[in-house]
Amino acid sequence: MATSETFDFNLDLSDAIEEAFERAGLELRSGYDYRTARRSIDLLMLEWQNKGLNLWTVKFDTQTLTPSVSSYTLDGKVFDIVEGFLRTDSGDTTSQFDQSMSRISVSQYAHLANKLTESKPLEYYVARSPTGITINFWPAPDSQETYTFGYYYMERVEDSGKPASNNMDIPARFLPCLVAGLAYRLAIKYPEASERASLLKVDYDEQWDLAADAAREKASLFVSPGGYQF
Q1: What percent of the chain stands above pLDDT 90?
Q2: 135 lies in which domain range?
């Protein structure tokens, strides 16, 4: 039996929106139908990022630290910091060294007695504002060594954009979840599809669970039992 021998199936915006309309028992008829669906998709992407860690959006970057400067504002595409470490002698094949750093809460940062202390940074606090992320280091970097902050961050999913030929910035395995989520939202918006809303919500929740489980970290976790000395 012949097969296609291809592995590049995807849906552009027009196909994904049309599929969602059909599931909701609706027809995509006007420019407004397309516009309102695209708006729902962009909101859906933000919802996914609020739900948890989307591994395909995890990227790596570095920030060179300047002596006495403790706060650094990152690019607006950074949604949150996943892990961070302090690198000394960056680029030196014999002496480059990465040291883990602790992320602290706003309460812990607020209770630091002297935020101007200068030394080798050990902790960082992430301040999230509507326009971006600012990282505050403690202690503030001194001038004894060259410090670089290496960090893995969760990048915002790209907007849908206007052309209907665009593909969404998601893995193909998340397409069923995208279509199911959009169909549910369309059923809420259009009164004539409201009777399907509860069924579509169940389907969307199931598709999210399947996609989220497929996207979780697969690395092994080892737990060693400990004990107490009396």
Answers
A1: 83
A2: 55-155
